[in-house]
Amino acid sequence: MKICRNCENVFESGSLCPECGGALHDVSEKEENAYNARLKRTVSRQSSRSYGLNSTFSDSVLGSLSLFGTSLQGLRPLRAAKAQTENYVGTYAGAGIVFFLLAAINFLAPKLVRAISSIRLRLTSDEKPTPSAFWVATKNIAKYAYFAFGAMLLLLNLIEIL
């Protein structure tokens, strides 16, 4: 493998770059392995089939906010149980915890969600199932809906406290 230091294009053979006319330089095995690993990660991220299987930075932020919302939803029932003065622990707390936990799992562990959803396909087929575009779209809609419902229930719970 050879690389042009001027334009960073990579070629298998030759001495001159067909793009810019610069000299091609041999690449060490270590550099070639690093280049191939970067290329593989880039192709994997850009593949429409793997889109729903990788967490982005915004997914990590929303997943963390979901976990934080779960803890906020759980404070009131815990406080009421500790005080033992209230039998009423909040109408929206349980549902809010469930929605925020579902959102956190979908945002932070998309490969786990895919593995769980593909169990049926793995039992009936020898091939490794790949996610369809429809599955990716519905999973993305669901994770944002879980987050929105959890946030709405958290707001209702906070309003109920006041």
Element string (H = helix, E = strand): EEEHHHHHH
User: Which outline best applies?
Assistant: elongated
Number of domains: 2
Evaluate the radius of gyration: 25 Å
Find the count of extended strands (DSSP E, 2+ residues).
Answer: 3
Q: Note the total helix count.
A: 6
Task: Give unreliable regions as ranges.
Answer: none
* Helicity range: 55-70%
The chain-level mean pLDDT equals 79
Question: Please, could you describe this protein's structure?
Answer:
- Helices cover 64% and strands 5% of the residues.
- The mean pLDDT is 79.
- The protein folds into 2 domains: 2-46, no CATH class; 51-161, no CATH class.
- The longest helix has 29 residues, at 133-161.
- The chain is mainly alpha-helical.
- It starts with a strand and ends with a helix.
- Strands 2-1-3 form a 3-stranded antiparallel β-sheet, with no helix packed on it.
- Helix 2 (57-83) runs antiparallel to helix 3 (93-108), helix 2 (57-83) packs parallel to helix 6 (133-161) and helix 3 packs antiparallel against helix 6 (133-161).
- The protein contains 6 helices and 3 strands.
- The protein has helices at 29-46, 57-83, 93-108, 110-117, 119-124, 133-161, and strands at residues 2-4, 10-11, 24-26.
